Here is the input.
Amino acid sequence: MSLIPDIEKQPQSVIKQFQEEKLAIALNYLSEHSFFYKKMFEKNHIDIGKIRKIEDLKDIPFTNKTDLQLYNNEFICVPRNKIIDYITTSGTLGDPVTFAMTDADLNRLAYNEKISFQCAGAKPGDTFQLMTTIDKRFMAGLAYFLGIRLLGAGIVRVGNGIPELQWDTIERICPDTIIVVPSFIPKIIEYAENKGIDYKNSSIKKAVCIGENLRRLDFSLNLLGQRIKDLWDIELYSTYASTEMATTFTECRFGCGGHHHPELIICELVDENGIPAKEGETGELVITTLGVEGMPLLRFKTGDLANFHYEPCRCGRTTMRISPIIGRRNHMVKYKGTSLYPPAVFDVLDNTPYIENYVMTVSDNEYGNDRIIIKVGLNSYSANIIKELKDRFRARIRVAPEIEICPIDEIRKINFPDISRKPIKFIDNRKYIDYHAE
Here is the structure.
């Protein structure tokens, strides 16, 4: 039996027709059950019967994060007694947004993760160690658990942090796969080396990496990915997902982008004016969920910038593949004439061995331009360390931000506040961001 859903092996024309049939069902459902979208259709005189093609979506206004924050309950399409689970977004762009999920939505989420893990070569009988939280209203941890259960594999719910507990679990249970934020991998390697743990001969063969890029746009490993690979020769798989999408893009073993699941989501790329990007161009990802019952979304702007690739993959899938995320549209920084995104800065910092932790802050200077301050915690120190670090930045991203050396514990409190589920590494204190307003 093939591990690849049949639709993911079809020609692009067949996939498009399949999605258009699903779109008609989604539009009818929204028109009947979503107060927010019924109002939108009426206000903009939209006849959903005329939205037949993917190209016709351009006639429907975008939905954005502000809509979800201001009119959250208007997106709910089911009575309260059908809601099984309540989830919130991480709130990285403002107040967290609540999502209501039905039993059918949880089954869809499980299916999504099952086929996504299969992209990464997972199979029944594997054992996963979850190095991220499953509590705190977090969708991802729950999704991983449900998907692995449906796959027929085992899971150990260890949670994030605590290298000692991670290695104790690995030695006791012998999982073969870890689900982890990749910048945590060098830390568990360092712990293993300090404690004399033979990590290179442990049971771990594979890491499914979440939340951070491992690759450049040409799909070669970035600095963090290469550092991990040099230290520990395990298989690395990147994933990309969000609560709003309730869908995951996961690499296959060929590492050429996250595979699209056309039965679950429609994807568009738009430029800064909201016009569909041309093939090969970078754009902002806009998504329409398929098969979501509780809170489906139509033309939701994710804020994430990426490229699409349509060449058939060597794994046998013919679906679109999404590139590594370049950055968030409203996180773009203009610094000394250079446009850059936080992931490029993080890549330098994650590959600097004497940096224990860090946080990047952007604010307005006295002239209204962007000012970058990088606060770093060091595990070793030398007299010229700031100059050396600035030289690293110039070599990689052409500019050198301001550097402040701070106690490791001080930065750790910023990275991991009590209410956060994800490490906070970027803080935007700018008042005016005209050139990347959504």
